[in-house]
Amino acid sequence: PPAYFRRLREVAARADRGEYLPHLWNTLIKGFLKEWNDLNIVLALVLSANVAFLALPGTSEDSASALANLSRGAGIVSMFVTLGGLLTSLSLIWLHQPMLGTGSSDACKYFLGSAYSSKRMDPLQGGPSESKRGSFLRLVWMATYLGMPLVLLVWSVIAFVISALTWTFLFSAYETRVIVVVLCAIVLTTPLVTILVFWGPIASKDSLFGKMARSS
């Protein structure tokens, strides 16, 4: 959500000043749609993995131990969270797809909402501080919902890892447990290391979207 908020704030600041921004607006929407389409692929893979995992011996039995119930419960939670992320992503794509090719007026309506109509009818309505506070809260809510598919994907992966590790400790030999834990640690730390390595250039103001925003 913070990354979505930064991009929304960049375009919203220009929309609030009434600047001409069709190119930047279309770039923003295209970026959103591409991210959600990519997330849909990953969410679909995680969902299919969850369904297959719940059919393994030990997780589908009626009389199971506490660890087996934990494994099954975490798998079910992961499945529903993944499904929620997939449906949210599809809804966002359905809502934002028609915005491709729209202009500055539609961008202002998107960011300012009802405040855009009231500003056009009465430019003196509402003080500057009140307008900025309402715009900030609106951007926060928008960024939260726009980033929801990614947030749900992260939580679904965490629940799936808990389910898989619990099942491994229940039905695998000691050597297999050690190998699985080591491999799982390597796989899970790799994305974190990647984020730490590239966080500086991405979080800086010299990002690609930031350069486009300043040059447009």
TrEMBL record:
Keywords noted in UniProt: Membrane, Transmembrane, Transmembrane helix
Name of this chain's protein: Uncharacterized protein
Chain segments annotated as transmembrane: 39-56, 76-95, 139-166, 178-202
Domain of life (superkingdom): Eukaryota
